Amino acid sequence: MKRHTARPLVFFFRLFSRSKLRSQKRAAGFLSLLLFGMLLANSGAIAQSELPDFRQNAIPPETKPDTRPATGTPNQATLPATVQLKPLSPGQYVLEFNRSPVVGTRLQLRGIYDESRLRFTRPRSWETKSVKVSLRFRHSPALYATRSNLTVLVNGASVGSVPLNKPQGEIGNAIYDVPISLLQDYNEVVIAALQNNSPTCTQDPYDPSLWTEILPDSKIVFDLAPRPVTLDFSRYPFPLFDELSLSPNELAYLLPSAVDEAWLTAASRFQSSLGRLAQFRPIDTRLVKQVNELSPGERLVVIGTTQTQPILKSLKLPLKLQGDRWLDETQKPIADDVGVLMLTPSPDAKSLVLVATGNTPAAASKAVQFLLQSRDRQIGTGSVILVKDLADVPTPDPRDWPGYLPVENSFQLKDLLTQANEPFQDITTRGSDAPPIEIDFRALPDDRFLVGNVLNLRYSYGPQLNPLTSLLEVQLDGLPLAGRKLDAVDGVRNGTFRVDLPADKIKPNSKLQIRFRLDPRERRSCNRAIDQQLWGTVHADTSFDLKRENMARLPDLKLLQVGYPFAAPQDLSQTAIALPQNPNPAELLLLLEVSERLGRLSKAESIKLNVYRADQLPAEVRKTHHLIALGERSRFPLPDALQSSGFNLETLFERRRDGAAIRTLPDVEGVAKQVVSPWNSDRVFLALTGQSSTGIQQLQALFEQDALFYQLREDTVLISANDAAVQANSPDAYTLEFLQQARQRTTLSEANWRDRLMQRVGGYWLLLIPGTILIALLMYGVGQAWLNRYPSQEKQ
Predict the structure, then answer these.
(1) Is the Isomerase keyword given for this protein (predicted)?
(2) How far, CA to CA in Å, does 545 sit from each of 18, 171, 405, 451?
(3) Is residue 719 within 8 Å of 708, Cβ to Cβ?
(4) Beta bridge partner(s), residue 152
(5) 316 — alpha (psi -120 to 50), left (phi > 0) or beta?
(6) Is the four-CA dihedral 155, 158, 160, 161 of positive or negative sign?
């Protein structure tokens, strides 16, 4: 047993002595593995001790919130808080009927039944407490009181009626409460009059004694309490601009410490964009030097860096400054090419401040450009926007004018747009006295129509009408063009009516009216509902075939009413405005008014208008752009352009026209003169000047008020103010005098030479074949004469 047991032991020790090094390594590995296992066991025990025992106690231990400040990492960024404008004091707003162009000085209702519609909006910041309609009226003494009444409806719901029983000359008063639940953003008031002059039945519905007049001092009275407004770009242009406001939106620009091209161009483009958004709504614009000059509810626009707008350092803004550089939400400096947009309240919290800034002037301009491009600003939200990149918006074709006729000569009604910017569909009217179907038939400004323009009208109408007195009539700007008798007793489906359109009557502001005059087969003057089964439809596949060429004769200020040629293309990229080297406030306000008017007259995805001071206007821009120069005569930016024929303003209050020269003291008139550009005969130059700042102010009114602007004609206009007692916004407050100085010789066209050639040839295509044969014969004869002469010379 001992020998047997000793051998394995000897073998074991020998093996151990031979592999001592390997055994030590294995032992070290075994020990490290053992230590690692013990650590895992301890960590598992610790983890289990920290976890709650859900089998016995399902409530986890309470955790305390971390109150340590953010360290500036992206996960701990400081986001701006939601800010609201303080509401204004409650009050009362009175909306008088005479503010509507439908009313004017009077509103009359005639016939057995007549109604008139007035529309009004409800501002977004209003919380309406009560609404009342106050009517003042008088009516014909011939009306029978028990069968005549006046009814008021708001958004289709009746709010009250009053009998027409006043004696002759007496004015009636009626006040109706409107339920708040009926009000919407867009509202409609209908005033309907039922009038009879007989106790049984009025036989003649057109009796002139059937009338009621609504006096223009009738009104709608609102008791309101303004509510707080949240500052957020998701509803832009609100709260900067409220398209539902009943009063003109008030806007102020903060003047920078130094006016340069960056601020001029950015402010001009921004005002143009507001003009596009406003459309027909008025905007009151002014310039301020301090924030405390704002009135309650007024909006302030601050454009520029902290160097040009030092007031930014004192405003309470969502982002912070480090020296002159803006920091983002992580307290890191913003890149030099990133624009910053911020909405913040004024120090008294009663006015809104829009800030477009950055660490460089180019960044501030990029921030403004973001608000100009409709597709980009749709994704904006919050009170702070950092603009890193902008979409590249291509310049539209110079003849691509939305809302005008297509450039193609053959098109259909569905290719045109309604007032809501939607394609036309089938349109149906009902009743014997239905309003006409009105279509904007706006020719492009450089369209010149030839003979042979045709409208192929497709229409339908129903049965039960009188075939002897019913007709279909087509009018252009109120001028009857053609009519057709509707004599099918059972009605017509998809009828066709060819109408010739006069070449000299189609204008850039033309409207086409299609009226169905439907008379019921059995007339019952006492029954209004007898005509509601009568209907007429104009189909969307109505087609037009036009013959036209593209040219415009300039200079002509009448074309400026539609923006031509400065709005071609519609992004204003071919227009530049020049100002004096140091423009004064009156000249800056005129710049904003001109920019706003150009915005109202154009539609595009972007705005690329440029503004320069006199010494900064590049020579290349003079040659390639349409120019608008404005300023007082003594500091006019381009004085050489004023040395043209006709009427001219000279220095020292001197005026010249042809051979006459006079001096006027004082000279307070404003002058707008359009000439062919002296640097390019295919471009136009518009001069807006005056001998004093008063004349510049007259020009501001010319571009601000529609009643004055849409009187423009000839090539020169002189504007002067009348009695100071007349309200400034009244068309009677100013006098316009028009002069035609230059002969309209320049023909301007936005079409390329190939299109113009095809238009020329297309107008005389019948002569094309014989003309080609004649030219070929002439060339053949010339060639034969030359060949016959050549051999004779060789013989000699």
Answers:
(1) no
(2) 111, 54, 12, 11
(3) yes
(4) 160, 191
(5) beta
(6) positive
Give the separation between CA 578 and CA 184, rounded to whole angstroms. 45
Give the mean model confidence (pLDDT) for residues 95-124: 87
- Is residue 311 within 8 Å of 291, Cβ to Cβ? yes
pTM exceeds 0.90, yes or no = no
In angstroms, what CA-CA distances link 341 with 80, 304, 326, 557? 13, 11, 12, 38
Torsion on CA atoms 221, 225, 227, 233, rounded to nearest 10: 20
Give Dmax over CA atoms of the chain in angstroms.
Answer: 152
pLDDT digits (tens, 9 = 90+) for 406-429: 999 999 999 999 988 899 999 999
pLDDT digits (tens, 9 = 90+) for 205-252: 778 999 999 999 999 999 999 999 999 999 999 999 999 999 999 999
Q: How far is CA 557 from CA 216, 565, 682, in A?
A: 35, 10, 16
* Nearest to 371, CA basis, from 442, 301, 312: 301
pLDDT for residue 315 is more than 90: yes
Q: What's the angle, vertex CA 216, arms to CA 212 and CA 217, rounded to 5?
A: 120
pLDDT at 545 over 70: yes
Residue 162, C-beta contacts closer than 8 angstroms, at least 6 positions apart: 135, 149, 150, 172, 174
Nearest to 403, CA basis, from 603, 565, 595, 566: 603
Element containing residue 475 per DSSP (H, E): strand 471-476
> 145: number of CA atoms within 13 Å, CB side?
5
The 3-state secondary structure of 414-465 reads HHCECCCCCECCCEEEECCCCCCEEEECCCCCCEEECCCEEEEEEEEECCCE
- pLDDT, tens only, 358-369: 999 999 999 999
In the chain, % helix, strand, coil (3-state, to 5) comes to 25, 30, 45
DSSP strands (E only) in 732-784: 734-739, 746-748
pLDDT cut 70: percent of the chain above it = 82
Residue bearing the bigger pLDDT, 557 or 44:
557
- Under a CB-based contact definition with an 8 Å cutoff, are residues 216 and 107 in contact? yes
Kindly indicate the confidence band of residue 55, based on its pLDDT and cuts at 50, 70 and 90: very low
DSSP letters along 216-253, please? TT-EEEEEE----EE--GGGTTTTTS-TT-SSPEEEEE
Give the CA radius of gyration of the chain: 39
- DSSP annotation of 714 reads S
Report pLDDT digits (tens) over 706-729.
999 999 999 999 999 887 655 656
